[in-house]
Amino acid sequence: MKSRKLFALMALITASLVVNLGFTSVSPVFPHLILALKGLLKELPELVLGVIPAHRGAIEFGILMAAFMATRAPIAVIAGALSDVVGRRKLVVFGMAIYLVVSLGFYLSNDFMFFTLFRALQGVASAMVWPAAEAYIADLTTVESRGKAISAYVATMSIAEVIGPAIGVVIYKWYITVFGPYDVIAALKSPFAFLVVSSAFSLILLSTLPKVQFSKVERRIIRGFQEIRRRLSNLPKAIALSIKALYINGSVNGISMGIMSTVVIAYIIEEVTKDPANLGILFLASGAVGIPVTLFAGYVSDKMGSRKPLILLGYLIARPMAFIIPLIKDFLLLLFLTMLFSLAFSLSMPLMRALQADLIESDVRGTVFGFQQLFFNSGVIIGALLGSFLCAYFAPHKYMLFGLQVSGYIVPFWIVGFLGIITTIIFILYVVDIKQRGEQR
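Above: the chain sequence. Below: its structure as tokens.
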């Protein structure tokens, strides 16, 4: 039985790594591709002599993010609850099959409307895979090893952020070398071929997952809200309040992420660097510092028997970045700050998930994870649309701040900074850190 669980854990981690390599490989070229599809980029970005008006693509960036989250938010709840009833494996495999369809769709499409459609379908796939996979890992582990296991799973994203963009840039540059710089859209889409291959490999690997027994709750999916409310009312007051505070934090953090996802890339392309290779370097460096921190955080928190201090440390490092980044125009300094932010994010994110898993029983863990995704994703939808408006409205303007002329990009960045202060206060005041020692999952 132990060997089956170990195989399942390794299969989940490996599949996550491979598919994330595919999706991160397109990240350095994806924003440029959207600008090219809109007609704002008619030659390779590194050959553009003037400024690329990236803020004019902010609406499209926001629509793509909102489309992703609009499907991910409600389906995450259904999928999380469904995994509690029918099992995690079925949801993970079916979701990865949808990922493969999405990858093919991106590769074959040249129309923004189709990109929006496949982005929405990607949200469906993500909603089915991630809550069920995280609950699967929690079921495979005990409380003494859960932090390490979830951290290892989350670390695959950091590893992919190091290697994936480099793979994408190499493919992009290879295409230009072989076929020339004439077909801009084809060159920018070249890394999507690797995405198709990685999605297919991950689907095949996840299809080999063994069935792992866990305590399933016999109930209808539509009763998910009532079940969560009943469970929260029966929990000790401090734990129930912690779960609610995590849901609130998830919503606010989602709004922040939605704004940043729309604004950051536009800011970098317009104000700092145009070359996709430099974007690849940013992704690579930030991922590189995140990998050891993610693994270290899980190990230390398991030894400490406490998640909250390390999560809070990550919060305190990351929150000031939103105030500083819009003042930076130098690529090397931006690179340093991005690495620092990634370090903090890698410290807090996996431990937040482990903390949530510690607070709730296994038979509704998938549902709780799904509801967390609902609150977070709903916030991202709001943030993406809000970020689009803020970017399009403020980015073309300049303002004076303490005698310095700053870009209008500072407005959405600083809004995110103040939202970060709010979530930190909520976390300090209302989230407890309780580990259920001796529990066998």
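The CA atoms of residues 242 and 431 lie 4 Å apart.
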